[in-house]
Design goal:
The protein has 10 helices and 14 strands. It is of the alpha/beta class. It has a single domain, classed as Purple Acid Phosphatase, chain A, domain 2 (4-Layer Sandwich). The strands form 3 sheets. A 6-stranded mixed β-sheet has the order 3-14-4-5-6-7. α4 crosses α6.
Length: 376
């Protein structure tokens, strides 16, 4: 994808700030710049999203205090969902914060990145998971990336995305690890919190051809719950067949412009994605005592992301920046959620020729970086 010119980025940021101020003034609230500064708080945008988020926040408690309601900061939405029904019998309660597509760099202000970290931390999650695309076209902002991802204060797990491979996967991994983030590349690990054990499985980036699901599930225990991470949501189909009932993903940015369902047209019908934004699949059946889904089915959540790679403009409720909270061990239906499971779009699997071009792009960019590093 071509880089946008500074003037285009500045213009898009200006439009986004203007729209944010208009939303605030429509509700009699002070304007709140979308890129940091003095921030007003919104309780929704007229579509019930704020009401649903407040219901979710008021019905869940952590350490005797109500969970924080969703109040967008720097244009960031807080959304909350329950985990699969099968987890009820395996976990008492674990809170997971999911962020994706940070794209730390000049397109997305550092103030927005820090606001996302603050929003996630305010929910007091047990773990944070990050599903790829940490950089934006270069390695120039790796120091900022380290600063951002080291701020969560809880165990943090990550997988890589296509931009990480384009910009230098090994350098991105090294930065994440220096920040204390565990990077999962076709592997899984087990974490224990409050005497509860959770397996966290991470696929390497499928867009550039690095995902190896059979490697990732080797040694996976059927008697312990497992949470899957993948930059590309369509990999959930294969992980469900391998016993992973919930997969968190990113890549699409929710379409960024979602008015008139443009995101479904651009990313679904034209781009070939089955999963564009939000929750798809099934988290289990009420008519089964164990709440489990049949083998080969499950749920996937596609986050809208925090950053942008080209233009930061986000229009429409589904396209806003997003921090998502998952209450694992909680029965779906216990609290109001932003939306129910959606029906997948038809989708279109990438051709072998397309995958070959994507792999070649990674090699071409790596060789270009190496040439630039060579002494004159």
């Amino acid at each position: 994808m071509a880089k946008a010119s500074p003037s285009l980025i500045d213009a898009a940021s200006w439009v986004e700030r203007k729209i944010a101020r208009l939303r605030g003034s429509d509700r009699g609230e002070p304007g709140h710049p979308a890129e940091g500064g003095s921030e007003g708080h919104r309780e929704g945008d007229g579509d019930g999203g704020g009401r649903r988020a407040r219901g979710a926040g008021s019905s869940l408690e952590r350490d005797g205090a109500p969970a924080h309601p969703a109040r967008p900061r720097s244009g960031i939405e807080l959304r909350r969902f329950a985990g699969p029904r099968a987890y009820r019998h395996q976990l008492t309660h674990l809170r997971v914060a999911h962020l994706t597509d940070l794209h730390v760099g000049r397109v997305t202000p550092l103030s927005v990145q820090k606001a996302a970290v603050a929003m996630a931390k305010a929910e007091r999650p047990d773990i944070v998971v990050l599903t790829g695309d940490f950089v934006c076209h270069s390695q120039l902002y790796l120091d900022q990336l380290r600063e951002v991802v080291s701020g969560y204060g809880v165990p943090t797990f990550a997988v890589l995305g296509n931009h990480d491979y384009w910009s230098g996967a090994e350098e991105v991994v090294a930065t994440l690890r220096k920040a204390g983030v565990e990077v999962l590349r076709n592997q899984h690990t087990t974490i224990e919190i409050a005497h509860q054990r959770l397996q966290v499985l991470g696929l390497d980036d499928a867009y550039t051809g690095h995902a190896r699901p059979d490697e990732a599930v080797k040694g996976l225990r059927a008697d312990l719950p497992v949470l899957g991470l993948s930059h590309i949501a369509e990999e959930a189909d294969g992980l469900w067949r391998r016993g992973v009932p919930l997969v968190l993903a990113g890549h699409t940015h929710g379409g960024q412009v979602t008015v008139a369902r443009l995101h479904e047209l651009a990313l679904g019908k034209i781009g070939g994605h089955k999963y564009v934004h939000g929750l798809y699949g099934s988290r289990g059946h009420l008519d089964r005592a164990d709440g489990a889904v049949p083998r080969g089915t499950g749920a996937v959540y596609v986050g809208a992301g925090i950053g942008a790679a080209v233009v930061p403009l986000r229009l429409g409720e589904r396209g806003r920046r997003e921090v998502t909270i998952f209450e694992l061990g909680t029965e779906p239906g216990t609290f109001a959620e932003h939306h129910a499971e959606q029906t997948a779009m038809p989708g279109r699997k990438p051709s072998q020729a397309l995958m070959a071009r994507r792999a070649a792009k990674v090699i071409r960019k790596r060789m270009s970086r190496e040439r630039r590093r060579e002494p004159a």
